[in-house]
Amino acid sequence: MSKTRTKKSDARQRLVETAERLFYAEGIHSVGIDRIIAEAGVAKMTLYNHFSSKDELILAVLQYREEQFGNSLAKSIDRYVSKGLSRLDAFFAALKDWFKSPGFRGCSFINASVELADAGHPASQFSTAHKVKFRELIHEIIAETVDPKVAQSVTPAIYLLVEGAIVTAVIQQSSKSADVAKDAAITLISAKSKKK
User: What's the confidence (pLDDT) of residue 22?
Assistant: First the structure.
């Protein structure tokens, strides 16, 4: 790879990481392009060489966030599983850790969808697709614990419990909603398993 290509890739990555940090902490609309450029330490032309618009940068930020969040969540779940927890318990423990993390402001994908207020925006569409994957992950984790038919029937409700826990954790500035969601999920799984 040439030095020029490496510099461009490094600059693009700095822009994405800087924008991700600022958008998450302060919101998409409150952070201007000039601030991102200044904090990333690049020229304005560098930004426009990589992104034709702020909307394109927002989408790149969410793609980056999805990768980072997915890796972080998987590592956290694996760490708890290695300590003897089931994957379901490990998922909720990882969720609680996320809620306790410094600067926690909820889900980037919920935040972006709400702030953009346009279901047709590419970043909103990406956020919707991310939530489908997140729901599939929850289903996969539940299916490892119980009969697949039970998992299929409880996943929609447990997914809503998890999403509600995320929003509640932001509003209340507390990680307790992870415990409430876990208890409700286990109660629901148990009740549905008995009916089977």
Answer: 98
